[in-house]
Amino acid sequence: MKRIFQVLALAAAVTGVSIGNVSNAQTVSVGDMSSYTPPSEAYPSIDASVGGYVGDLATPAGHHERVQRLAPRVASHGGYETCGGCNSVSCEGGCYSSGQSRRGKIGAALNDPCASGWMNAELLLWFPQALQSPDLVATGPNAAGAIQGGPGYQALFGGRIEQGMQPGFRADVGRYFSDGQFGVGARIWFLQGADTAFSAQSDGSPGSPILSRPLFNTSVGTEGGFLVGGPLGPLTGEINISSQLDMVASELYGKALFIQGEDYRMDLIGGYSFFNIENDLLITQSSTQLPPSPAARRVVLDSFNTENNFHGGQIGFQTELNRGRFSFLSLTKVHLGNMHQRVDVFGTSRSDFVGVPASLQTFDRGLLVGDDQQSQSRDVFAFAPEANLKIGYRMRNHVNFTVGYSFIYWNRVALAGDQIDRNVDQTAVLTNNPSTSPARKFNDRGFFVQGIDLGISVDY
Question: Could you say which residues form the signal peptide (predicted)?
Answer without folding.
Answer: 1-25
